[in-house]
Write a structure and sequence with these properties.
76 residues; alpha+beta; Multidrug-efflux Transporter Regulator, Chain: A, Domain 2; 3 strands; globular
Amino acid sequence: MRPQLSLDDLDEPRGLTRAELMTATEVADLVGVPVSTVREWGRNGTLPRVKLGRHVRFIRSHVVQVILDAEQGGGE
């Protein structure tokens, strides 16, 4: 299981823009998997997520990093 990333893990401290926060639907479209798969990956720690109250968002740079790590490591 991957450790949960936080906003402190971003390369440079700054405010996030709306474009950097993705919904599960946006991540699913990017990766080409069902939304339910993205939600499960978020729950089990495969894909880092940020909970904002009742809402869950994914930080674009974290999603990209997980994809690149999976490509380099041959996936999990």
